[in-house]
Design brief:
The complex is a heterotetramer of chains A (about 200), B (about 200), C (about 260) and D (about 270). With about 200 residues, chain B is of the alpha+beta class. In chain B, about 45% of the residues lie in helices and about 20% in strands. Chain B has helices at about 5-10, 10-35, 40-50, 65-70, 135-145, 145-150, 170-190; strands at about 60, 75-80, 85-90, 100-110, 115-125, 155, 165. Helix content of chain D is about 35%, strand content about 10%. Chain D contains eleven helices and eight strands. Chain D is α+β, with helices and mostly antiparallel strands. The interface between A and C is large, with 44 and 45 residues.
């Protein structure tokens, strides 16, 4: 059980991809106008992250490393993520067109989302994972769980930001500050707040 | 859905196109990777050239794993150069976000037989985002203290316990670099010189 | 490929659709790398080169790639280019590879390249796509260098590595500072850009009104052509004194139709 | 050179790579196609083409939630092309061809605030609270005595995408040269003071109250008293009086400004 909780704490709080490591900022800023679309984006990214870890970890461990083809790592990972995003795009287009329109260009951009590829790269880095979670051996289960909770961490931070933004957009702001700049300022204060996790992590 | 229809259908076109692009990309990469592979020898030769400005013969030194790692970090490769200098590729740990720093440390025998640091070259660094902060002045400190190093048991450190060398705003990365250099020094003293220092 | 189209694409890439300030794409590398101006130039030029190559190839294949598998196909093309560039640099120009080693894998993750491929290259001709890639890349390079200079001067008192003074504000080299500087420069850019656009639109007001044929008046080919040219000139040509360093367009607006 | 190239390339490794990548590509292509088949939605070909020509700003100026909704209504004829102000005229010509209707460039229009009250109009009560027209319009029919007066809350200036609106002495003034007639201000104004006027118009009546003279004088120093002088003096008969307000027929108006000189209340203003 210990590792389960440490995964949750590490993935959601201490090593939160968006707010501590500042990866995946494009959708974090782009889609967080409304909480509904932010939640939709969060779920889509979590789904992609989980399935990516499920596929890329064994792919790397049992096929690429034994055959010495490490240099293919980036190409294969990005291909897997892109295929998953294409499937998710078709699914979202069918089941919730308003969410599909709200995400717009940011849906295909999940592929180049630094967080998703970041998880895939982090999970296969055994030494890093072991020191992070304080476990002795790495297996697919841990990888998938970490992917899942990294997605949850992403969703949590994007939903918090969308709640913040809905409040912010009602303020009387100079017109130039409306939209992205004020979101960046909010993210700046959020970053200062989360700086403390750097110390623990 | 006869086979003929399937062959003409949109689905088949997708599979063929994706397969074709993947094969061309994969094939190109595989071939290029073998063609453009940079061998370990070439990397070492480049390191020598970057330090001494000209190519030089070298001899690879082999050590068992126990000697290669110590409390500061680990030595990846050790070479003895033509002019008697040692070239060590050492990795120092617990930098920013427990990333590592890998450096070439070149130790040249000083007059009295002890090994002074001739030059320190940054090789690679993982997750140390503030590397741009480290100017020439930071690296020059390592080569300036050879006399104190000669009488042994003095290491580089971030605080004042040893020879202080830190960069404001990037103390964790400085610690990793200090560890890399200390690891090379420790290896040089205990293993290269038979541990009498 | 009329002069008009060239002007539209070049000003789109540099000003109207500047990837960093207007489209706000590629934020991860922008935040991570703008600690030093030199990083900005290195990353910017690498992105520009790969953006041009991938835009050209994608717009060449745009009719062949069916819509159902377009994302994986584009991504493979981009990732292949990045890896090839990395291998070639590592083998033939090691010094350049050393200084850019950290950024090259980051480019695969850069949203700008897939963003431009998806929204422009997959819908336009090859030459237009190549130009769009070039100017979007240049827009990105200028923006990144600008941010790099600001953060380097304030954060570590140096510019392009040359130490100016010892006064340092730690905030600006931290990631929170990155958000702050990036947000403020977007606000400044948008503010100046909308001011110029409004001023330009009001100056062209009379011409805009006269051009429109009244109801019932027969439209002729000449009126159409003039009106289309006028619209394009109105839409994109900023004044000479457009402040951002990128906008050295420096040509007068209109009168070219 | 050719021999050296072949030698250093380990062909077995290359074969291996091709095998793995081919397997992955086919596997994922099939997976994608299955998902595409499952999630196939019938998409009207025409709507997609129309969408390409629309400006795609999703501003809602046409009353639909976004461009897609507007495109669907266009395809089945429920919406007209003039609703969309943002798309340029050439694109509208293309769309017209697509859905097979005749289209001629509509007269360009600009928005104008039909009120000159502000400091001149009496307040019903002194309002202290959040600024914004919606709040000012909440109690007892609005802070101004006059039912159709501009409240000066500035919500229209706040929402205008091109900053064309300024609040001068409590009244919204729209700069016609900057205005792109997108209708955002008209939607946000709780009093309906802002209306669209042909861009070529020279004059307009800066008042929209339908009360008779004496009542108007009671609550506004500059309201229109419906005397009809302007209608009588207009040489080209462009002005007709309709429930105490002048209505301009801009196709006849020659811009001679006689009505402006004649108006005792100086309510008729130049654009």
């Amino acid at each position: 059980m210990g590792t389960f909780f440490s995964i949750i704490v590490m993935a959601v709080l201490v090593n939160n991809f968006v707010v501590v490591q500042f990866l995946g900022i494009c959708p974090f800023l782009g889609v967080s106008k409304k909480t509904s679309s932010a939640l939709g984006m969060g779920v889509a990214v979590t789904l992609v992250m989980t399935i990516t870890c499920l596929i890329t970890y064994p792919l790397y461990e049992y096929i690429l490393v034994p055959l010495g083809l490490e240099y293919l790592e980036i190409i294969v990972f990005i291909f897997v993520i892109a295929a998953l995003v294409q499937m998710i795009e078709r699914a979202i287009r069918k089941f919730s067109p308003p969410l599909y329109r709200a995400m717009g260009i940011y849906l295909p951009l999940i592929t180049t989302n630094c967080a998703v590829l970041g998880v895939a790269e982090l999970v296969i880095d055994k030494a890093q994972m072991m020191s992070l979670l304080g476990i002795t051996s790495m297996n697919v289960g841990v990888a998938v769980l970490y992917g899942l909770f990294a997605g949850v961490g992403f969703t949590v931070s994007i939903v918090i930001m969308s709640g913040l933004r809905e409040k912010i957009d009602r303020l009387k702001l100079p017109k130039a500050l409306k939209g992205f700049p004020i979101t960046m300022l909010a993210a700046c204060f959020m970053a200062m707040g989360f700086y403390v996790f750097n110390m623990i992590g | 859905m006869t086979v003929r229809q399937f062959l003409k259908s949109e689905a088949f076109k997708c599979i063929v196109v994706l397969l074709a692009i993947a094969l061309v990309a994969g094939g190109l990469l595989a071939i290029l990777n073998d063609l453009l592979a940079v061998s370990a020898e070439e990397r070492t030769m480049r390191a020598i050239e970057s330090v001494y400005g000209q190519q030089m013969e070298y001899e690879t030194l082999e050590y068992d794993a126990a000697d290669l790692t110590n409390e500061y970090g680990s030595i990846d490769q050790a070479y003895l150069l033509e002019n008697g200098a040692y070239m060590l590729r050492s990795t120092g740990g617990d930098g920013y976000k427990n990333g590592t720093v890998t450096m070439w440390v070149i130790l040249s025998p000083a007059g009295d037989g002890s090994l002074g640091i001739y030059k320190v070259v940054m090789q690679e660094y993982a997750k140390q985002t503030l590397m741009a902060q480290f100017g020439e002045s930071f690296y020059a400190v390592y080569t300036a203290h050879n006399s104190e190093l000669a009488d042994g048991e003095i290491w580089f450190s971030v605080d004042a316990s040893g020879i202080q060398n830190t960069q404001a705003g990037a103390t964790m990365s400085s610690r990793a670099i200090n560890n890399a250099v200390n690891c090379a020094l420790y290896f040089a003293r205990n293993v290269l010189q038979g541990g009498e220092a | 490929m009329t002069g008009q189209r060239f002007k539209q694409i070049s000003l789109d890439g540099l000003l109207r659709n500047n990837p960093t300030f207007r489209l706000v794409l590629g934020t991860c590398p922008t935040l991570a790398l703008s600690t030093a101006a030199f990083n900005g130039i290195g990353m910017g030029l690498a992105v520009t080169f790969i953006l041009i190559c991938s835009n050209v190839l994608i717009s060449l294949l745009r009719k062949a790639i069916p819509n159902a598998v377009r994302i994986p196909a584009f991504v493979i093309i981009i990732a292949t280019f990045v890896t090839i560039v990395r291998m070639v640099l590592d083998k033939f120009i090691p010094s350049l590879y050393e200084s850019m080693g950290v950024y090259l894998p980051l480019i695969v993750v850069n949203c700008i390249i897939l963003g431009r491929a998806e929204s422009f290259a997959s819908k336009n001709k090859v030459l237009d796509s190549a130009l769009d890639g070039l100017f979007t890349g240049l827009g990105f390079t200028c923006a990144l260098t600008l941010l790099g200079i600001i953060r380097e001067v304030l954060g570590s008192g140096a510019i392009f590595g040359y130490q100016l003074w010892d006064f340092r504000i730690g905030f600006f080299s931290s990631s929170a500072g990155a958000f702050f500087v990036y947000g403020m420069s977007i606000a400044l850019f948008n503010h100046i850009y909308s001011k110029i656009e409004n001023k330009l639109r009001s100056k062209n007001f009379e011409a805009r009104i006269m051009q429109k044929p009244d109801i019932g008046e027969p439209e002729n080919e000449l009126a159409d052509q003039a009106e289309e040219a006028q619209n394009a000139a109105l839409q994109t040509a900023p004044d000479q004194n457009a402040p951002t360093a990128a906008a050295n367009a420096g040509h007068d607006n209109g009168g070219e139709a | 050179m050719q021999m050296i190239v072949c030698a250093s390339v380990q062909w077995d490794k290359v074969g291996l790579v091709l095998g793995i990548i081919a397997a992955l590509a086919v596997l994922f292509a099939v997976l994608i196609l299955i998902v595409t088949k499952v999630c196939h939605i019938k998409e009207d070909e025409k709507v997609v083409k129309i969408l390409e020509h629309l400006a795609g700003a999703n501003c809602g100026g046409c009353g639909h939630t976004g461009c897609e909704g507007f495109a669907q209504c266009l395809a089945c004829g429920k919406a007209t092309l003039d609703d969309c102000k943002v798309t340029s005229d050439e694109e509208k010509k293309e769309i017209a061809k697509l859905i097979g209707i005749e289209f001629s460039a509509a007269e360009p229009t600009v928005a104008v605030a039909m009120c000159s009250g502000g400091v001149n109009a009496e307040d019903r009560y002194m309002y202290v609270g959040n600024d914004g027209c919606a709040y000012l319009n909440q109690y007892l029919g609005g802070v101004k005595l006059c039912k159709t007066a501009c409240l000066g809350g500035g919500s229209c200036a706040e929402v205008c995408p091109v900053d064309a609106i300024k609040i001068k002495d409590g009244v919204a003034v729209i700069d016609k040269t900057v205005c792109i007639s997108c209708g955002a201000c008209m939607r946000v104004c709780p009093r309906g003071v802002i209306e669209r006027v042909p861009a070529k118009a020279k004059v307009y009546c800066a008042c929209s109250t339908n009360c008779k003279g004496k009542e108007t004088m009671a609550f506004c120093k500059q309201g229109c008293i419906g005397c009809g002088l302007c209608a009588r003096t207009c040489p080209s008969g462009a002005i007709t009086m309709k429930d105490n307000l002048p209505v301009f027929d801009y196709s006849k108006c020659t811009g001679c400004m006689k009505c402006l000189e004649k108006c005792p209340r100086h309510v008729i203003k130049t654009m």
